[in-house]
Amino acid sequence: MSGIGPVEPANEPVNSTDEERSCDVVGTDASRPGDRLAGHWSGLPAGRRRAVVAAAVIAVAAASTLALPQALAPDPHPPPYDPVPAPTPWPATVTAWHYLGPAGSLNSSGKTGRFRFAVTVEHGPAVTLRVAGTSYPGLTARAVPGPAFTVPAGTPRGITVEITVSDCSALPPEVDHPFLDVTLRNARAIQRHSFIFGRAYARDLSDLFRAACGPRTARSQPWPTGSAGSQNADLGENPPNPPRGAPAETRHPRRHNKKVTSEPAPLTLPLPRA
Fold it and tell me: Does the predicted model carry a pTM greater than 0.85?
């Protein structure tokens, strides 16, 4: 055996104090509240622990019973309803014309007359209108003072239309269901539409015909047709037809269901002559 230093016995006890001093202590765990509560809970008797658990369950159930109706109740201040906006209507479907009467007397030549109308737009954006024609080719029509005018929704506007007789040969002696051809435009579309008027406008227009063309003989005239693809009648002058009653049931004459029989008359033989 070779080495340097004294030889120490193998079984000599080690000094515990020196060993503890030679070891570095990094840190220790402090006691936590949960550990203390767990220890306190473990120290309670079994009956008391069951009572505590039952009380906790009852408290949770009561809190849920009180909170559930409030959670299911409707909101007293709901957010404002934002409906889907309706599409912009067609201008011809929301515009109506009503005849009011003549606007003064005829001009000096007797060939031009002015007539007043009320134009209404029911709803939607404003509609711009232009009078494009009238019932017969022998007439010209235009709105005055300007050819085009705009009518906002919900506010009726008075319009004056000037009609001039340009060709008497193309006019009938009497007027029936006259109309105006109008171009309508709004944010959705441009349409050409015919507005039909009733007896009052027809009578005043006939007066213009007689003043411009003199008395004329009656002759058959075709029904006036407008250049527009759609028409709308002035319901103030042309009320809708009253509903008709139910048609009477057509019944066939009742047949005689009895069988008629007749007995043959007895034959009368001539008596022999004496």
Answer: no
